[in-house]
Amino acid sequence: MRSLEGKVAVVTGGSRGIGRAICVRLASMGALVYINYVSRSSAAEETQKIIQDAGNRAEIICFDVAQGDAVQEAFKKMVADAGSTDILVNNAGITRDGLMARMKESDWDEVMNTNLKGAFFCAKAASKAMMKKRWGRVINISSVSGVAGNPGQANYSAAKAGLIGLTKSMAREYASRNITVNSVAPGYIKTEMTDLLDEKTQEQLKRDIPLAVLGSPEDVAGAVAYLASEDGRYITGQTLHINGGMYM
Predict the structure, then answer these.
(1) How far is CA 95 from the centre of its chain?
(2) Which candidate in 45, 51, 124, 221 could, as Cys together with 27 as Cys, close a disulfide (CB 3.0–4.6 Å)?
(3) Is 60 helix (H, G, I), strand (E, B) or coil?
(4) What does pTM read for this prediction?
(5) Which of 57, 48, 63 is closest to 12 using CA atoms?
(6) What is the CA radius of gyration of the chain?
């Protein structure tokens, strides 16, 4: 069922990993998907090709979510070209890991600016078209680290926890305009990042997960698709945990 026919979706950090899986899934449901990236244009082009080869629609748009002016211009362009921005998935994120006692202020700021402030910039810009249309979906990609914490990730955990607070406040503010706002909090997902871990580390991760396997990007994409569709129309201000039971 192509339940997103006629909708325009924007996925930040959409060129690889979880972002790519979300782009492919939303496009398969009929949405025109804008694949955002800030580096590695080849990865964005590969995601677009996967979508187009399946007979679906995707465009590529380059902007840094941490730059407010660039975000405003990008959303103006998307609305001018496509007529709307109906679905926003705030997926763009970076890590600058390190123990808090040794963490540089710049490492804190970079993670906050991209992972949290970037979501604020994008949601604020996207909501203008949503409010006019009186329909919209905002889905923020948080993390198990944002609810359980993680040593060596004070900046990342704080930003991802902040996304959950942002989700709840936005959900209350925009509900009267028929705009739902939710977050998805993945646990350990098999991506390029986890592929770099040695076998011993991966096995340790699995022991910490009741289902004893790493998740897939498609597991996260399925949750996003549900919240974006009419099936999720009565859900707002919630966090859906996709972690194999790691956090309950």
Answers:
(1) 15
(2) 51
(3) strand
(4) 0.96
(5) 63
(6) 17
Residue from 152, 222, 151, 213 nearest 187 by CA = 213
Tokens of 137: 């979906």
Residues 15 and 217: their CA atoms lie apart, in Å, by 12
Q: How far apart are CA 23 and CA 10, in angstroms?
A: 8
Tokens standing for 32?
């025109």
Q: Are 51 and 33 contacting, i.e. CB atoms less than 8 angstroms apart?
A: yes
In tens digits, the chain (248 residues) has pLDDT values of 469 999 999 999 999 999 999 999 999 999 999 999 999 899 999 999 999 999 999 999 999 999 999 999 999 999 999 999 999 999 999 999 999 999 999 999 999 999 999 999 999 999 999 999 999 999 999 999 999 999 999 999 999 999 999 999 999 999 999 999 999 999 999 987 778 778 888 888 899 999 999 999 999 999 999 999 999 999 999 999 999 999 99
How far apart CA 218 and CA 52 sit, in angstroms, is 18
Q: Which residues are catalytic?
A: 156
Give the DSSP letter string of 87-154: EEEE-------B-GGG--HHHHHHHHIIIIIHHHHHHHHHHHHHHHHT-EEEEEE--THHHH--TTBH
- Residue where the block lists tokens 């956090």: 247
